[in-house]
Structures are given as structure tokens and as C-alpha cells.
Amino acid sequence: MVELPELSYALDTFYFLICGVLVMWMAAGFSMLEAGLVRSKNTAEILTKNIALFAIACTMYLLVGYYLMYSSGAGGFLPSLGVLIGSENGVDAVLAGGDDAPYYSMRSDFFFQVVFVATAMSIVSGAVAERMKLWSFLAFAVVMTGFIYPVSGYWTWGGGWLAEVGYSDYAGSGIVHLAGAAAALAGVLVLGPRKGKYGKDGSIYAIPGANLPLATLGTFILWMGWFGFNGGSELKMSDVGSANNVAQVFVNTNAAAAGGVIAALVLAKLWFRKADLTMALNGAIAGLVAITADPLSPSALGAVLIGAVGGLLVVTSIVVLDKLKLDDPVGAISAHGVVGIWGVLAVPFTNAEAGFGPQIIGILGIFVWVFVASLVVWLILKAVMGIRVTEEEEYEGVDLAECGLEAYPEFSASKK
User: Fold this and answer.
1) Can you tell me the distance from the alpha carbon of 170 to that of 47, in angstroms, rounded to the nearest whole number?
2) Residue 179, Cβ neighbours under 10 Å: how many?
3) How far is 101 from 217, CA to CA, in rounded Å?
4) Which one, out of 36, 290, 314, 408, has a CA that is 20 to 30 A from the CA of 178?
5) Sorting pLDDT into bands at 50, 70 and 90, what band is 7?
6) Alpha-carbon distances, residue 396 vs 19, 50, 329, 330, 370 (angstroms)
7) pTM of the predicted model over 0.90
8) SS3 for 388?
9) C-alpha closest to that of 31 among 12, 49, 9
10) In terms of Cα–Cα distance, which of 288, 312, 333 is closest to 188?
11) pLDDT of 409 higher than 90
12) Main location per UniProt (predicted)?
């Protein structure tokens, strides 16, 4: 059999890059989803957050994050310190053959990983929407994407101590989504709820988003981007086994999202007597988050069921967090955190190589690290520069207070 190392190298590199582009497109999905679920007076600011956090994530991961995550010894707890992403392995290394020869460009690996860290940070932006100072948020993004996420990423995908104990997380239900939700939860606790969200008597007042068509578009963009998120995590495409695995991952990813939508919509109808669109949208995201920990091992029907449980959990969690007065305008903590935990715990049901013990250790390790580290950073930012806009600015809208413009100026009451 004739081997074609250069052709395989080119194919796997190209596949990695295309999947990275799909994951990058999820940034548009988060932007549209969040812009649709906040009030019109806060739209420009949430969009500014999303494009700025993406740029910050890409830069910080280039400067230090990638080195921290992938340049440290196996089984360790503290990553090695360093900067930049190292030298490129060229074709000569591929043609040399052997087990250590790379089968894709190291630059393509960086590109694929950098859009993942941006996804984790995007989860935070929706949870703290409508009342946080823009520059405080961006300062947190620097620390989160450059240091907090890469450390727990090293523990897992970088070959650190969680990898050694057997923690299994194919595409990041815990590594990416739970981490983002843990950082968001810490921020929400320090920040407090939006004005008018909760009454003194314990009553809860809905604050509807301004543009549900936009939120729906954002959800479909995320659904599409998730094929790169999960499919690219196979890390290879150039042989029959890998190609079949990628096909299975795509089918299961789609099936889980569908299961999440159906389950969330049915539960909303039974619970609220209405088909709540926002719950259906969160159901789709919940299904996707749930299957991300292992989109390869389950059958297609099993993926539907895993996604459906995620859909039920996200509706329940959103209601419970509201009762606890944890104000999350887009349901990010529920969809990515609570359902991320379910996704990690679901792995041993279909993957015989995974165990509940390592999965629980992984959940606790990731959550405790990201939550505590994020809480410290949020509290420092609160003391040094403040993290919440004034009550007047919140009432007028953070578009004008933080950005000096409005997303929908023709609809402003002040305009004639």
C-alpha cells in the first residue's frame, strides 16, 4: 500500500482549519443570540463586548494561553510558563515519519484551539449583560482567556493531572462550557441582578428581549458552528476510521440539538401553558452542550435522549436560578453550566472506557478552579475600577453610557 503522507497532512490540516472557521462563526451566533435577548437600549454594548472579547481571546491565547495549555509536562498541576506558540513543524518533519511526526500543521491546531477559548469567554458576556461596565468586562476577558482557561485546559487536553486520572471530555462540555459558566456565575454573584428584575416580596418580573428573530438566527448559527466544534475534535479526517467517526459525530450533534428543542418546548408547554420560544432556543443549546462531552460513542437515538435530558434540565435550571435571584439574561449558566455537568456525567453511559469517578473529579476540579479564580478577579476589578454601571446609566441603557451610540436610534423615544 502506497502511503501519501503529504496528502494526508494537507487534508487533516485543511479539515482542522475549516472546523476552526465554523467554531469562529459561533462568535456570530453568540452575538446574535445575546443581542436578541437583551433590551434594545443595551444592544450595541453587548455586540461591542462580543467582538472585543473575541479579539482579546485570540491575542491573549497567542501571547501566553496556548503555551500554558500545551507546553507543560504530563500529569502536572501547574503549567510551565512561556510565551507565544512555538516554531512550526514543517513538511520535513512529516516526511521523516515515525510516531512522533505531526499529521497536521501545528498552526492549524493553534487556530482550532483559539476559537474554543473565545467560545468559553462568550458564555460569560450574556450572563452579565445589561448592567456591567464594558471595560471591566474586557479586563476580565484578558485574565480568563490568557490564564484561567488555559490552566484547566492544561489539566485536561494538555495532558495534566485530570487527563492522568482518566477524565473524558471529547469536545469540552466541562472544559469549555462548564468553565465559561463557572466564570459567569462568579460574575453574576458579584454583580447582582438587573434593576426591576426581582421585587422586595420575592416576585420575579420578566424582562423580555428586544429581538427574538435575531435570537433565533443566533441559535441556528450556533447549531451550525457546533458541527465544527464537535466534528473538528476528532482531530483527523484522512483515514476511513476517522472519516466514519466524523460522520457519526455530525449525526449525533444534530440529533442531540433536536432532542433538546423538543424536550424544552414540551416541558415549557406543560409548565407554563405556552410554547416559550426562548426555552426552545435554550433547549437547542442545551442539547448541543450535553452531547459535546462525547458525540462519538452514543447511537443516534441515544444522542437524542442525551440532548432531551439537557433540554429538560435547562428549563428547570432557568426557573430555579430565577427563584434564587441569580439574574442571567440569556440563560447561559443553565445551558452551559448545569447541562455541561450533565454532559460530562452522561459519558460513562455509552463509553465503556470512561468512569463516573474521574468524571466527577473533573467536574469539581474545573468548576472550583475557574469559579474561585474568577471570583477573585471579579472582586479585584470591583475594588479597583468598579464593575457595575450607575443606576441612571442602567435605566438609560448601557449603549449610550458605554458606547455613546444606539443600535436602534430611529426607535429612541428622544428622537422626533
Assistant:
1) 30
2) 32
3) 42
4) 36
5) confident
6) 41, 21, 18, 20, 33
7) yes
8) strand
9) 49
10) 333
11) no
12) membrane
Name the burial class of residue 134, with classes exposed (0-12), middle (13-18) and buried (19+) by CB atoms within 10 angstroms of its CB: middle
List the one residue out of 407, 410, 413 whose CA is nearest residue 36: 407
H or E element in which residue 280 lies = helix 277-292
Mutual orientation of helices 43-60 and 106-127 as an angle, nearest 10°?
A: 150
For 177-188, what is the mean pLDDT? 98
Q: What pLDDT, in 10s, does the model give residues 243-276? A: 999 999 999 999 999 999 999 999 999 999 999 9
What's the grid cell of residue 80?
A: 510551565
CB 41 within 8 A of CB 113: no
Instruction: Give 9-68 pLDDT, tens digit per residue.
Output: 899 999 999 999 999 999 999 999 999 999 999 999 999 999 999 999 999 999 999 999
What length does the chain have?
416
Quick one: CA torsion of 132, 134, 135, 137, rounded to 10 degrees?
60
Residues 6+ apart with CB under 8 A from 367: 178, 182
